[in-house]
Amino acid sequence: MHPALEAETLYIQHFRRRDEARPLDYYLKQMDGYTALAKALKMAPDQIIDEVKKSNLRGRGGAGFPTGMKWGFIPKQSPKPKYVVCNADESEPGTFKDRDIMRYTPHLLLEGMAIAGHAIGAKVGYIYIRGEYTREAKLLDQAIDEAYAKGYLGQKILGTDFSFDITVHRGAGAYICGEETALLNSLEGKRGEPRVKPPFPAQAGAFAGPTVVNNVETLADVPFIINKGGEWFSRLGKVERSGGTRLISVSGHVKKPGVYELPAGAVTIRELVYDICGGILGDKKLKAVIPGGSSAPVLTADEIDVVYDIEPLMKIGTMMGSAALMVVSEDYCMVKLIKRITKFYAHESCGQCTPCREGCKWMEDVLHRIEDGHGREQDLALLLDIADNINGKTLCALGDAAAGPVSSFVRKFKADFEAHIRGKKCPNA
Amino acid sequence: MAKILSQKFYDQMKKLEPRYPNKVALLLPALHQAQEESGWLPPEVMEEIGEYIGIHPAQVREVASFYTMYNLKPVGKYHLKVCTNVACCLRGADEIVEHLEKKWNIRCGETTADRKFTLMEEECLGACGTAPAMMLNDDYHENLDIPAIEKIVAGLA
Ligand SMILES: Cc1cc2nc3c(=O)[nH]c(=O)nc-3n(C[C@H](O)[C@H](O)[C@H](O)COP(=O)(O)O)c2cc1C
Ligand code: FES
Questions:
Q1: Is the CB of B149 under 6 A from ligand 2?
Q2: Domain tally for chain B?
Q3: A136 in contact with B at a CB cutoff of 8 Å?
């Protein structure tokens, strides 16, 4: 067994029960449920934010932004109500970890949100959950009812003056609603189109009030930080400036796909694929990995000795994103794969920004003709040029998310594209 | 205008109203609830929702049409949405879609003539570790292959 699997974990032992029934009983008995909230309510808001800063918790939704700093941006005084919004959209292809938190340990999320509410001075929280997760939405509603019944949510929580309400708000099938400002529009009953920033959500977020938007896992980490201390959480991580453990979603051509929990930065991608996930399906050779959800630039089999964490991956030109690793074995067609990825972004582009709306569709068309054997020599330069004209030129990061994969596939798997163009068909077909 | 939406719809909305600072925020929950009742969102239903919330029906439609889960036309009794995104594709989702297209002689996005089945290609469902995955109405089915899908479909009356 890989030594990283023996390290302390926060979640996975609870997921393994695969038990969704009466989560509050379990939470109270086995996980010190709501003791962190009781402790936090005795702390000053600034003390909580300091503890979160010390923990080196970085957002688990994709961008890896330091959570304590984000909370610190919320103004102390505000004429408008403040909000805590949980991003449970989990729509980045390859990601399926938040689902387990909501199924098996929903109270961690609720407790984390209430603590965040106390820290920033908010009385209202929303969980924006992707529409497809009907089961998870129901489980959350049940957990919320349990928490209200026991006085962990609602008015005068645990005998203090603090009140906090949580409402589950279902999305309706739009990837872009994972982007935080699109999410806020969707919460407000509008089309899920990203907003122009500034103002950032910390100044004017939900219903124009100061708002913290955090991923499910980010908020679920908070009760651990309050109970055991920021320093303790920080030390769980094995690399600098990255605290805690990471829930990693592994999918594709590995023998044992699934959600894994490892200390931040404890393994390389090679160790993750071969020692932890059992290697490649059918003992084939590895062709590529996409390390951080489909928005992350691809890595070749020669690039997997990199430590799987935020900064090491950034240094080699890709990203950890939502910690979703997708593994591709030798005989899968890379042109087909990037065509599918690009089709996704073309479909999900909200259409506000011309470079993204037109560029994604154009890249999809070019990739489609290459896949079908009608590609032209100059198409590869064209793809790079379109990608370059999208990157950094859009309101939100969906444009970059579409452009990065295309340019990395074209650059790193050029021979595969050329074989399609010259042979006028897929060489594997 | 005679009301189409049920008392249950209005009760549900009443319960949610105090949870939001304004009524427009009820639009997505209202569309979900209405679709649960009628299976899709006919123009009259969207009009009634607009009236309840106090916005123009065009605004309801503008929002509803943004989201893929809202059915703006009727769908079959069984709505199959097969994920064909990366992880599912790597695990053979294409063959499942092809199999169903052939079996029912329809293309993705279409409904069988007897209105029993609607087949759609779906983006990542967040079930990539148990790929390929699909939704059948509100429920997930995972670790699919052709025998598994045959068995599921055979059980649908
Ligand atoms: C196109 C796009 C899609 C996103 N999808 C998600 C998502 O599904 N879940 C999520 O938590 N964050 C998603 N994000 C990141 C959010 O915008 C935001 O950074 C995050 O919710 C902040 O929370 P964190 O700091 O806790 O990570 C997405 C970003 C973009 C640009
Ligand atoms: S790719 Fe199919 S569920 Fe994620």
A1: no
A2: 2
A3: no
Would you state the pLDDT for residue A1? 83
Q: Please name the residues in contact with A142: beta carbons below 8 A apart, sequence gap of 6 or more.
A: none
In this structure, what are the phi and psi dihedrals at residue A125, rounded to the nearest 5 degrees? -130, 145
Domain coverage including residue B27: 7-66
As a whole-number percent, the residues of chain A with pLDDT over 70 amount to: 100
Q: Are B144 and B82 found together in one domain?
A: yes
Q: Is A259 on the interface with B (CB under 8 A)?
A: yes
If asked whether residues B123 and B84 sit together in one domain, one would say yes
Residue B71 domain flag: no
Tokens of A330: 């030798």
Domain boundary among B66, B91, B112: B66
On whether residue B140 sits in a domain, the answer given is: yes
Q: Taking CA atoms, what residue in B is nearest to A344?
A: B123
Among the listed residues A410, A265, A271, the one whose alpha carbon sits nearest the alpha carbon of residue A335: A410
Query: Could you tell me if A129 and A178 are in contact, meaning their C-beta atoms sit under 8 angstroms apart?
Result: no
Look over chain B and give the mean of its residue pLDDT values, rounded to a whole number: 96
Q: Which of A297, A292, A255, A299 lies closest to A273 in space, CA to CA?
A: A255
- Contacts of residue A315, defined as CB under 8 A and 6 or more positions apart, other chains included, come to none
Contact, A62 vs A81, CB < 8 A?
no
* Model confidence pLDDT, tens digit, residues A79-104: 999 999 999 999 999 999 999 999 99
**Is the backbone peptide bond immediately before B29 cis, with ω within 30 degrees of 0?**
no
Same domain, residue pair B101 and B52: no
Exposure on the CB side of residue A277, measured as CA atoms within 13 A: 30
pLDDT tier at B1 (50, 70, 90 boundaries)? low
Smallest CA–CA separation between B108 and chain A, in Å? 15
The answer to whether residues B90 and B145 belong to one domain is yes
Residue B72, in any domain of the structure: no
Whether the per-residue pLDDT at A240 is higher than 90: the answer is no
Tokens representing A341?
Answer: 């990825």
CATH of the domain at B35: 1.10.10.1590
Which positions ≥6 away from B24 have C-beta within 8 Å?
A: A188, A189, A190, B53, B55
Question: Any CB–CB contact under 8 A between A90 and chain B?
Answer: yes
pTM value is: 0.97
Q: Element (H or E) spanning A124, and its range?
A: strand A124-129
pLDDT tens per residue across span B108-142: 999 999 999 999 999 999 999 999 999 999 999 99
In a domain, B2, yes or no: no
